[in-house]
Structures are given as structure tokens and as C-alpha cells.
């Protein structure tokens, strides 16, 4: 609302401040009544250390991975958090400097080393980060914290101890996978990743990790590439953050945010570059949609096109009467949204935060509908005949299909993001409800407090970590809402501040 003074003291800056891990779980102060059936753990990850000594991290995705856990049992709640012992963290602690280059922060060679060994490190190339601050998800019986590189980190979801670093390149031909895999009810995991193949062949690979094995072996050892999507440009794969999965299809949206591989391979290994330096936008291609079947995995060679947008999160997608319905949290235009997520931008005063958000791509929740049955003769005609949507798909003279979306939510500088659905029941199926976090000029603040992310638990509860900056006593809490009407059921307050978290999961 415009008649309210928002964020007068810039309280949101508090969620980008370093904190200490806890030696043991601390009790939370519960008000309201937590349902008796709600027994389990809310696990979340995010950045928790925003500098090493006097060396700052620059980007929202650079801080060292901190794992958080709220345990709920018999109406009582405890809170616990530990830094994940990644190589990036352990070596930074040992050497008291940033050792591994993060997404938007370059690590420089050790100034204490002599000139020869410095020269050597300089030309050895940069080590890929294992700073798994983005998400946590199960594979088989195990739990992994992840970022978007080839490294995932096995963690103990009860003690929050770090177990081991796993290099996916040992099992799969991918250069990394997203932090947003899909999981089927039997435990099969699917993910997508860029593959910079031999002789510069480029593709996006869908990988499949089987469910828990009878012989108790690690399912990752039996993972394989199921199907490949081609790249729109020879040396420039698009950045991919998530993908869609229906009962029988994979949906991959190829956006104009590109990774310049030549930059990546040359400057990356020679001068001080980080991941953010290797992105560029293609202002000509717009956005391409791709489909593949799941079983067997086969690429469908239809060319679906629409105007340029950034995409991070698929909400859901499903098949209906010969169409694929794809719901997305989009950001309009080809300018990379991550350019606006530098910590210096996010820690500015409210007026400056608003000004920056005015220049950034604008968020919009959109529904696209892709026809499966395509007839080249039907030029100029809208192929979408689903009665409940205004989304269109028109066959063009060059054989491509031009898509226009139905807008599901649009508010200037107001994003519906970090979407959640009742995943177990409705992933890949026709559904009604999606829940999300409200970003106001990139600041997560809907409902008046700083609101993190909503996680939906099976019988209709939403859980979110909320912080109250400026309040000295119990500055953070776990909020439990009714999923039906978003009324408060209970809250569990703690006596520590909780920094921003990105994603997570509920473990019953
Ligand atoms: Fe994400």
C-alpha cells in the first residue's frame, strides 16, 4: 500500500549480516498451538557468513552455507544451525581469507606464497566452489545440500554434520546440476544441467538418479543421462535454474541469459574472474521452450518461442487434453536479474533499493500453454483450445510456434517468488493452489515482517522463517499458517537473529 511508510530503518539489511552457529539446539518460545500431527524438521540453507576477516563477499549467493533446522515434536520447537564444512568454508577458516572463488566474489592467490607458487596457482585455473547454500534435498536415503556446480554435500539432517563432498562429474557428463531437482513418489530424482561436451558440443542434460537400492548401494552410482536438449547457440548455453516435469514430459525453458563459454574457459583460468563475469544477455533470441518425453527419454523437435524473460522458478506444469500447461515466475526482459542481487544493492537505504528495482526486469507470474499436436497447415491460428486460459500458441510461417502467456499475477516491482505447491500430491498434475514469498522491490517483506519462504506440509500448513529487525528480544520466529486461509496457527520465537535463507525442505 502506498499510504504506508515501508522499511523506514532499512531493517531488511539485518538478514545479510553474519551470524554464529549454535553449539546445540536452543528451545523456541511457542505461542498458539502446534498441531499434534506436525512432527518433523524444517531444514533450510542460505548464506550465514558474509565476509572472511576483512574480505567481503559481494553477491547474495556468495556467503558461506549455513544450515538451519526447526524441530517440531509434541507441540515443542527447537532451533539449531551449523555451517556446512565445505572445502570453501574449511579452507577459509584455516587460511583466514577467501580461498575459493564464489559466484560473485573472486578469490586471489595467497599473498604469503612466493612469486613462483603464486604464478603457478594463477595459471592452474580456478577451483569450482562447493559452497552449498542454495537448497537441500534427499537422494535415496541420504540428504544433500547443494549449489549449482558439480559438487553436492552429503549432510546429516539430524545432527547437521557434514558427511562428505560428492563430485557428480565422477558419475555423469554434466558440468553442474540445478538446485531444483524433481522427485517422484518412489524416490527417483531428476535434474538438469549444462554439458560442455567434447569438441565444444553443447547440450542440456536431464539426469536420472534411481530410488533407494535393495542392496543399499548409493543410487548416485547408478545415475545416468536420460535425454539431451540442444542449445540455441553454439558456444553459449543458457543459465538454467529449474525445469518442469509432468507425468510424461520434461519442460525446459531456454532463456536469453547466456553463459559465455569462451570467457568461461579463457579468462576464467587466467585472470581474476568469477561466475558473474561470464554471463551475458542475448537481445535477439527471446525465449525458447523445449519438450522431451520421459519414458523413453526423447527430445521433441518442436520450436516454441516467446518474448525474452529471465526464469528461475517453475511453479508447476501438467498435461491437459493434448496441451502442456506451464506456470512460471518470470522476470520480463533479457537483463540478468542476478545483476541486481549484489549485497551492496540489497543493503542500501529503502529509497535506493526502490530506485534499483525500477531499472531491473519486472516480475510476472505467467501461464504458457504448449500444444502437443502440431499441424504445419494451421498457420496464423491459435492452437490452444483449453477453455479456462487466455494463453495462446500460434503457428508461424517458418514452422515455429509463437506463445503468448496468460498473466496470473502482475504487480509493479512486486514479485510472487520462491513458489511452493503441495508437491507430493500435485507435482506434474492439474492443481489449484500455489504459495509464494512476496518480494517488494526484491525485499522479502509481505505480511509486514521480513518473510522468508513458505513450505507446504501435507495436510495444509505453511511454514516460514520470519525476522523482526529492530526487536531485541526474540528477533526471529518460525511462523505456522493455515494453508487454507493463511491465518496464524502458531509461532515459535527464538532469541537469535536468523539471516536470509534461500530454499529448503520439510522432513516429516
Ligand atoms: Fe531457486
UniProtKB/TrEMBL annotation:
Keywords: Iron, Metal-binding. GO terms for molecular function: all-trans-retinyl-ester hydrolase, 11-cis retinol forming activity; beta-carotene 15,15'-dioxygenase activity; metal ion binding; retinol isomerase activity. Fe cation binds at residues 180, 241, 313, 503. The keyword Iron applies. One of its GO terms (biological process) is zeaxanthin biosynthetic process. Transmembrane segments: none annotated. Coiled coil: none annotated. Binds 1 Fe(2+) ion per subunit. Belongs to the carotenoid oxygenase family. PANTHER family: ALL-TRANS-RETINYL ESTER 13-CIS ISOMEROHYDROLASE-RELATED (PTHR10543:SF43), BETA-CAROTENE DIOXYGENASE (PTHR10543). This is Retinoid isomerohydrolase RPE65.
Amino acid at each position: 500500500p502506498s499510504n504506508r511508510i515501508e522499511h523506514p530503518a532499512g531493517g531488511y539489511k539485518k538478514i545479510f549480516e553474519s551470524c554464529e552457529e549454535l553449539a546445540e539446539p536452543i528451545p523456541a518460545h511457542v505461542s498458539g498451538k502446534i498441531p499434534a500431527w506436525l512432527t518433523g524438521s524444517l531444514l533450510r540453507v542460505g548464506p550465514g557468513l558474509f565476509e572472511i576477516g576483512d574480505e567481503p563477499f559481494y553477491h547474495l549467493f556468495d556467503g558461506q552455507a549455513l544450515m538451519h533446522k526447526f524441530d517440531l515434536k509434541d507441540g515443542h520447537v527447537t532451533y539449531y544451525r551449523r555451517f556446512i564444512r565445505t572445502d570453501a568454508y574449511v579452507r577459509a577458516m584455516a587460511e583466514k581469507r577467501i580461498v575459493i572463488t564464489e559466484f560473485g566474489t573472486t578469490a586471489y592467490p595467497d599473498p604469503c606464497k612466493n612469486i613462483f607458487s603464486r604464478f603457478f596457482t594463477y595459471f592452474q585455473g580456478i577451483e569450482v566452489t562447493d559452497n552449498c547454500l542454495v537448497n537441500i534435498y534427499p537422494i535415496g536415503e541420504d540428504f544433500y545440500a547443494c549449489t549449482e556446480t558439480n559438487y553436492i554435500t552429503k549432510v546429516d539432517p539430524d545432527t547437521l554434520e557434514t558427511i562428505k563432498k560428492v563430485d557428480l562429474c565422477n558419475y555423469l557428463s554434466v558440468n553442474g546440476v540445478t538446485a531444483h531437482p524433481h522427485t517422484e513418489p518412489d524416490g527417483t530424482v531428476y535434474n538438469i544441467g549444462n554439458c560442455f561436451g567434447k569438441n565444444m558440443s553443447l547440450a542440456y542434460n536431464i539426469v536420472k538418479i534411481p530410488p533407494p537400492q535393495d542392496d543399499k548401494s548409493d543410487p548416485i552410482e547408478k545415475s545416468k543421462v536420460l535425454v539431451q536438449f540442444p542449445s540455441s547457440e553454439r558456444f553459449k548455453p543458457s543459465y538454467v535454474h529449474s525445469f518442469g516435469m509432468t507425468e510424461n514430459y520434461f519442460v525446459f525453458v531456454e532463456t536469453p541469459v547466456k553463459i559465455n563459454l569462451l570467457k568461461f574457459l579463457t579468462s576464467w583460468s587466467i585472470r581474476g574472474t568469477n561466475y558473474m563475469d561470464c554471463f551475458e544477455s542475448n537481445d535477439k533470441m527471446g525465449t525458447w521452450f523445449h519438450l522431451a518425453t520421459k519414458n523413453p527419454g526423447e527430445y521433441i523437435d518442436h520450436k516454441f518461442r516467446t518474448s525474452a524473460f529471465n526464469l528461475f522458478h517453475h511453479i508447476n506444469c501438467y498435461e491437459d487434453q493434448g496441451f502442456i500447461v506451464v506456470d512460471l515466475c518470470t522476470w520480463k526482459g533479457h537483463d540478468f536479474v542476478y545483476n541486481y542481487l549484489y549485497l551492496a544493492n540489497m543493503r542500501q537505504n529503502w529509497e535506493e533499493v526502490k530506485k534499483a528495482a525500477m531499472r531491473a526486469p519486472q516480475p510476472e507470474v505467467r501461464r504458457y500453454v504448449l500444444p502437443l499436436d502440431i499441424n504445419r497447415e494451421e498457420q496464423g491460428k491459435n492452437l490452444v483450445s483449453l477453455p479456462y486460459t487466455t494463453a495462446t500458441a500460434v503457428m508461424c510461417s517458418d514452422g515455429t510456434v509463437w506463445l503468448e502467456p496468460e498473466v496470473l499475477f502482475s504487480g509493479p516491482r512486486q514479485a510472487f517468488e520462491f513458489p511452493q505447491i503441495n508437491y507430493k500430491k500435485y507435482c506434474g498434475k492439474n492443481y489449484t493452489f500455489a504459495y509464494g514469498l512476496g518480494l517488494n522491490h526484491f525485499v522479502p517483506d509481505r505480511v509486514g515482517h521480513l518473510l522468508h519462504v513458505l513450505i507446504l506440509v501435507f495436510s495444509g500448513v505453511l511454514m516460514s522463517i520470519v525476522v523482526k529487525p529492530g526487536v531485541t528480544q526474540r528477533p526471529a520466529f518460525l511462523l505456522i499458517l493455515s494453508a487454507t486461509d493463511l491465518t496464524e496457527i502458531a509461532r515459535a520465537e527464538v532469541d537469535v537473529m536468523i539471516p536470509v535463507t534461500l530454499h529448503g525442505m520439510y522432513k516429516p
